[in-house]
Q: What sequence folds into this?
């Protein structure tokens, strides 16, 4: 029975040795994995620092751009207000022109009879002026003709 006890102890020792070898292999594999994981985390940390700095720089540029856009928007607001004022002024001018046109048209309708009389009188005056000019132009010619006739008569008398 002692042999069985020694054999059992030897089998247990061999099993323990195999278990230790397997645990040792597993721990070495875990060690390699943790090493790889540690290097990956280190690289990831470096990349994250780069991304963080780029993100910070991008955020700064975005803030500057937002401020610039805000200033330009405020400047454009003044332009839009000015254009609105010009539009209002043009609208008021159009309304004034419309009122004047309406007033002139209504006055023309009221005074249409007087206007037509004035046009008729103007026509009569023009005709009279034209006749006066005709007579004036004919007068020197008729005076010359009379002078020639008188000269001719005197010559006949003197012969």
A:
């Amino acid at each position: 029975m002692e042999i069985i006890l020694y054999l059992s102890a030897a089998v247990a020792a061999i099993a323990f040795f195999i278990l230790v070898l397997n645990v040792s292999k597993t721990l070495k594999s875990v060690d390699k994995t943790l090493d790889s994981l540690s290097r990956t985390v280190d690289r990831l940390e470096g990349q994250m620092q780069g991304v963080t700095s780029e993100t910070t720089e991008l955020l700064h540029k975005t803030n500057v751009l937002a401020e610039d856009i805000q200033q330009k928007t405020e400047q454009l607001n003044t332009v839009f207000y000015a254009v609105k004022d010009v539009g209002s002024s043009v609208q008021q001018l159009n309304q004034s022109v419309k009122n004047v046109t309406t007033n002139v048209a209504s006055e023309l309708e009221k005074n249409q009879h007087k206007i037509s009389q004035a046009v008729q009188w103007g026509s009569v005056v023009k005709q009279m002026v034209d006749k006066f000019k005709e007579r004036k132009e004919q007068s020197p010619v008729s005076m010359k003709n009379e002078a020639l006739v008188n000269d001719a008569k005197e010559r006949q008398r003197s012969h």
User: Anything to note?
Assistant: The chain is about 100% helix and 0% strand.
